[in-house]
Design a protein that fits this description.
- This protein is of the alpha/beta class and 363 residues long.
- It folds into 2 domains: 7-149, Response regulator (Rossmann fold); 198-361, Histidine kinase-like ATPase, C-terminal domain (Heat Shock Protein 90, 2-Layer Sandwich).
- Helices cover 51% and strands 19% of the residues.
- It has helices at residues 21-31, 42-50, 60-63, 69-76, 102-109, 121-197, 201-224, 232-240, 262-281, 328-341; strands at 11-15, 35-38, 55-59, 86-90, 112-116, 230-231, 251-254, 259-260, 291-300, 306-315, 344-350, 353-361.
- Strands 2-1-3-4-5 form a 5-stranded parallel sheet, sandwiched between helices. A 5-stranded mixed sheet has the order 7-9-10-12-11, with helices on one face. Strands 6-8 form a two-stranded antiparallel sheet.
- Strand 9 (291-300) and strand 10 (306-315) form a beta hairpin.
- It is rod-shaped and about 125 Å long.
- Its EC number is 2.7.13.3.
Amino acid sequence: MTVPGNPNSERVLILAPHGRDATIASGLLHEAGLRPLICEDVTALHRGLEEIAGMALVTEESVRSADLSAISRWIAAQPAWSDMPFVVLTSHGGGIERNPALTRLAEVFGNATFLERPFHPTTLVSMVQAALRGRRRQYEARGRLEDLRLGEARLKVMLAAEKVAAEHQRLLIDELNHRVKNTLATVQSIAMQTLRNADNTAQANEALEQRLLALSRAHDVLTRENWDGADLHDVVTQAIAPFRDRDGHRFRVEGPDVRLNPRMSLAIAMALQELATNAVKYGALSNPVGFVTITWSSERKHGLDAHLSFLWQEQDGPPVVAPQRRGFGSRLIERSLARDLDGTVEIAFEQTGVVCRIEAPLA
């Protein structure tokens, strides 16, 4: 209906088609620095209202018997902040108190002021200026209402964001509690099994330190990713880093980009730590020429979700002799890893070197 800052918002629409009333009124208002616009009939007045205007100045005879239904609908459809002012010039001796016919105009226009003719020009200008001041206050009210509406919308957005943040924080706390419990359980299991299977205190200390460091490195990878998971390349690289030679020829790593969830990342990191430690003591990394090949692939099997096939294969190490009983490292890999991965893990002590095969879903 109006545009903020648009000078046409203060136009004075004049409907006075008889005689020189329109010309005289327009001249007086123009001299007062106002913006009059003469309308030739009721239709033009309605069009001016639908566009932009500050008020309307009409003569009684121009609207007394005219069809004002369109203007009446426009007035009824005004927004809550708007109350278009009308000034009606009445005939001599025809004020609303003495002229019941003007009651209809008062009902149609609503915000109507009646000025009886003849009048002093200053009176007309003053009345129009007063009406425009009231219209400006309506514009200001509109601006405040718009500010309130925008403020309410921003507040709703902020409250919604705060609610989401609070829920996210609660989930993070629950997740943190869960991870701490799992980590403590893992550390407890590692400590108990290491101490139970070690031949002496020194061996136990060394094995426990290496396993806890492996767990810490896996945590570092996940922390960088905000515990959303980790890339398998990063997990493998961190796990074998302490066992690489200067030239990096002891490990041959190849595989596509695969995203692991936190539980799988920790499980594979711990398994690689155990395999590498065993390879240093007894396998391919215990002599100058042996090496380890680590490969993996990801594919869909039988229309199911992506599936991980992971292979650790030692070569050119000392001849392998299968142990008579499984140590903690082998049990950790075959049982705990299989459980954490919800898959299968197989360690084969082949003569050419230890081979570990892992099959697990990536969902």
